[in-house]
Amino acid sequence: MKLKVLPPTLRKNYRYLTVEIKSETEISKDNLINIMWDACIRFQGELKTSNFDLWVMKFFEMGKEEDYYSYKAIVRCQRGFVEEVRSSFALSNMYGGARIAMTTIGLSGTIKASQKYI
Question: With the C-alpha atoms ordered 57, 32, 63, 75, is the resulting torsion angle positive or negative?
Answer without folding.
Answer: positive
